[in-house]
Amino acid sequence: MTAHQKERLEEFVKVCKEKGLKITPQRLAVYEILLRRKDHPTVEEIYEEVKEIYPFVSLATVYRTVETLEELGFIKRVAYWGSSVRYDANIQEHDHLVCVMCGAILDLKADAGCRVPEEVNGFKVLSRSLYIYGVCPSCQKKD
Amino acid sequence: MTAHQKERLEEFVKVCKEKGLKITPQRLAVYEILLRRKDHPTVEEIYEEVKEIYPFVSLATVYRTVETLEELGFIKRVAYWGSSVRYDANIQEHDHLVCVMCGAILDLKADAGCRVPEEVNGFKVLSRSLYIYGVCPSCQKKD
DNA sequence: GTGTATGCAAACAGTTTGCACAGAC
DNA sequence: GTCTGTGCAAACTGTTTGCATACAC
């Protein structure tokens, strides 16, 4: 676990205490898994991983935990076009670069791809989700 | 119905004939509704509208029809973070402006929100999907 | 000890599927 | 007449909820 991850986990514990939420092993496990994973797991996938440590954990608990984490702003729901919701502990605004050949997904620093104005068509912009689809350097060589 | 919509509908009829698919009133109705609507209705919403014309239509038929339309490339599935899938008959590349309060979705001409370079991090860019989340003018007033 | 979080099972919503019949060809 | 498309209901999947118990405080 990196220093940054440890820091985030401690911040989570702090916020829970402030809000009167209990620090349960399940909550810590869910957040730790999300911090460690570089992909964007579904609730089911998180559940499977928590189960390795706490075999009696319930799927409902994982759902409730990610909801709590999202409300506290520690994780973000990822807009995906699959059927189930996915979560990401990287709460910095960032874009995604997807290789259509090999499926690799790279996180992009926000504004590396493009910049969105603060207001568009009278809408007050809160966030954005940008997926750029293309061919990565190594797949370009394969052609 | 605009000339463009009529043209698209005729194209659909033509492609169906080529593929040996039957031209049923339900199919025409679903595509016509999607062509006319400027938002991105859920299957349920399309179903409600078809029912006004064909009261005995089944929800399953609407699901099957949008699947067919998508396979033929006449409509696109819209990535959304609500619980149900939405469809769009505008198959040109374009961005989306989503109101997080009321769920309204506006189409944005591609590059109205932002411009993506032809190459990012060595990736050859093919297409992109941009969703801008914010609060629409009328919801801003409601606060 | 108190009260929130958990585990379980049942409920729910959106979507898909199997099957007999209807209707486009 | 043939064979695909439809309508109905039942099945399925992802998610939420109610309730009794467990456990963090």
Would you kindly provide a brief summary of this structure?
2 copies of one chain form a homodimer. Chain A is α+β, with helices and mostly antiparallel strands and 143 residues long.
What gross morphology of chain A would you assign? globular
Give, in order, the helices and strands of chain A: HHHHEEEEEEH
Tally of extended strands of chain A?
Answer: 6
Side-by-side strand order of the widest sheet of chain A: 4-3-6-5
Compute the average pLDDT of chain A. 88
Please write the CATH class name of the largest domain in chain A.
Mainly Alpha
* Largest sheet composition of chain A: 4 strands, mixed
Structural class of chain A: alpha+beta
CATH homologous superfamily descriptor of the largest domain in chain A: Winged helix-like DNA-binding domain superfamily/Winged helix DNA-binding domain
Relative helix content of chain A: 40-55%
Cα radius of gyration of chain A in angstroms: 17 Å
Strand residues, percent of chain A? 15-25%
* Largest interface: chains, residues each: A-B, 35 and 34 residues
